[in-house]
Write a structure and sequence with these properties.
With 478 residues, this protein is an alpha/beta fold. It folds into two domains: 201 residues, Rossmann fold (3-Layer(aba) Sandwich); 266 residues, Ribokinase (UDP-N-acetylmuramoyl-L-alanine:D-glutamate ligase, 3-Layer(aba) Sandwich), CATH 3.40.1190. The strands form two sheets. The chain has a nine-stranded mixed sheet, with helices on both faces. Helix 4 links the parallel strand 2 and strand 3. The longest helix is centred in the C-terminal third of the chain and has 23 residues. The chain is elongated. The protein starts with a helix and ends with a helix. The structure holds ligand LP7C6HRI and potassium ion.
């Protein structure tokens, strides 16, 4: 099963892998035509009803694969209003080759006749709300025919994710859907065929530019759309919590506060004026700080706990107590990771170990790490949390799904890059589901590292990544 949002991401990733959408459209159209070959005898009459989006584009392609049939293509709307280049190109190809086409600008003008087959390609995953005109009237007209109705991707008017239809929807006999089944088709009373359209498996398995689509564009978001992050870190180390907090800010967080021992507050502040500190009593996290930190945490959308905390027994006990009582979303990094397996919590944790830390948590690693994503998925399931295991290939798992990130470079083994990643994950977890936040953080962090190396060669330091996070998250790669 794949949601429309994930499908759009995978589609974008496929393009980045060298398989552009026009190629996918060609495969989709071909699959629809093959379904018609199975359903109808040669010379049967086929009415293709195409909308102005890519769903319509699929059917315009299908028409070219139906030479044995008597095909008429009805385009709903003027050709100039076709929404995408690839659909428009396929319309132009039909026109140039003098196919039997007509454009319907007024729903009253749709003359379907009495076809043997109707191809419903008005709307697919791009639908929002109830069908408008001329689609609504066309759907009623399609439902009134005695034809066998073949829907492209989803019956028009049906939401691919929920199966809901707010108004009239096409009553299809059969649905040819692409790449993977859609959740909304479960409630549709039709034969559903899933057609492979040539999307490489890597487009789903590896993070790519499509994974960033969920973030939206910066100009669409406003201050307050992201969220507030609390970094709980520092003690024996002062640089780590500062890096984490600065990374969270650059990854979009509206506000980031650092809870750290008062003994190091001045030094943490010295890294950046923009840091807001909430110092607690003492020189390392300990039992007396648990309640104040929990009170602070309750006022934030996410918490990042671990960077620079050290592994003093008292500190680790305090981390356990905090995680046990906390109920929100937290990124757990560095020394704090080792307490996670024994912690019983209602919180949603994103754990970011490297392989050494993973072993310390009781997880299994393997020399042939790339092919052992199953180890991450299983251990994540055992923990009941999201795991982001850092390495040459980062593996992100949540017990069900997994994703692999291959951005980044050997220069990133330098200290502090993990602190940056944790901060980015904390910010992204304010706006994305935990698994997505981890995957996008890994992708963007690696991309920032790759950009840094490209700009200044090797000799990378962690702050180089922070400055490049906004571009890595919000700028296209073409
Ligand atoms: N990898 C893939 O996902 C592939 C998908 N293919 C096909 O593309 C469609 C989705 O295409 P898209 O252009 O995004 O959307 P639609 O064609 O479904 O519709 C967009 C079109 O419709 C207008 N619109 C939206 N809501 C309504 C409404 N309620 N009433 C009327 N009109 C509406 C909107 O303004 C747009 O103009 C997917 O389903 C597949 O069939 C590919 O070709 C292969 C790869
Ligand atoms: K459709």
């Amino acid at each position: 099963m794949i949601t429309s949002e994930r499908m759009a991401a995978v589609d974008r990733n496929a393009e980045a892998l060298g398989v552009p959408r026009k190629q996918l459209m060609e495969s989709s159209g071909n699959a629809v035509a093959r379904a018609i070959h199975r359903l109808a005898d040669p010379e049967a009459s086929v009415a293709v009803v195409a909308g102005r989006g890519n769903n319509g584009g699929d059917a315009l392609v299908a028409a070219r694969f139906l030479a044995e049939y008597d095909v008429t293509v009805h385009l709903l709307g003027r050709p100039e209003t076709i929404a995408t280049d690839i659909a428009r190109e396929n319309w132009a190809a039909l026109e140039a080759a003098e196919y039997d086409t007509e454009t319907v600008t007024d729903s009253a003008d749709l003359a379907l006749g009495d076809p043997d087959v109707v191809v419903d390609a008005m709307l697919g995953t791009g639908v929002t709300g109830a069908l408008r005109e001329p689609e609504a009237t066309a759907a009623t007209a399609i439902n009134r025919t005695d034809a066998t109705v073949v829907a492209v991707d989803v019956p028009s008017g049906v939401d691919a994710d929920t199966g809901d239809s707010t108004g009239v929807a096409v009553d299809a006999d059969s649905v040819v859907t692409f790449h993977d089944d859609k959740p909304g088709l479960a409630s549709v009373d039709a034969d559903v065929t899933v057609a492979e359209i040539g999307i490489p498996e890597a487009a789903e398995r590896f993070t790519g530019p499509g994974d960033l689509l969920a973030l939206g564009r910066p100009e669409q978001s406003h201050k307050g759309d992201f969220g507030e992050v609390l970094v709980v870190g520092g003690g024996p180390y002062t640089g780590a919590p500062a890096l984490t907090a600065r990374a969270a800010l650059r990854a979009g967080a509206d506000l980031v506060r650092v809870a750290c021992p008062e003994s190091i507050a001045r030094e943490v502040q010295s890294y950046s004026e923009s840091l807001i500190l909430r110092p607690y009593h003492g020189d390392r996290l300990a039992a007396a700080n648990v309640d104040p930190v929990l009170d602070l945490a309750a006022d934030h959308d996410t918490v990042v706990i671990g960077p620079g905390l050290g592994s003093h027994e008292e500190t680790l006990a305090a981390v356990s107590d905090i995680l046990e009582a906390y109920e929100g979303t937290a990124v757990v990094d560095a020394d704090a990771l080792q307490v996670v397996p024994a912690v019983e919590t209602d919180a949603t944790l994103i754990c970011t170990p490297h392989q050494g830390e993973l072993r310390k948590m009781g997880g299994e690693t393997d020399e042939d790490w790339r092919t052992r994503t199953d180890l991450v998925v299983e251990f994540a399931a055992e923990l009941g949390h999201v795991l982001l295991v850092k390495g040459a290939y980062d593996v992100i798992g949540d017990g069900g799904e997994h994703r692999v990130n291959r951005t980044g470079n050997p220069g990133m083994t330098v200290g502090g890059t993990g602190d940056v990643l944790a901060g980015a994950a904390g910010a992204l977890a304010c706006v994305l589901a935990p698994f997505e936040a981890a995957a996008v953080a890994a992708y963007a962090n690696g991309r920032a590292g790759d950009a840094a190396v490209e700009d200044s060669g090797h000799g990378l330091v962690a702050p180089d990544l922070i400055d490049r996070l906004p571009a890595a998250l919000w700028e296209g790669d073409e």
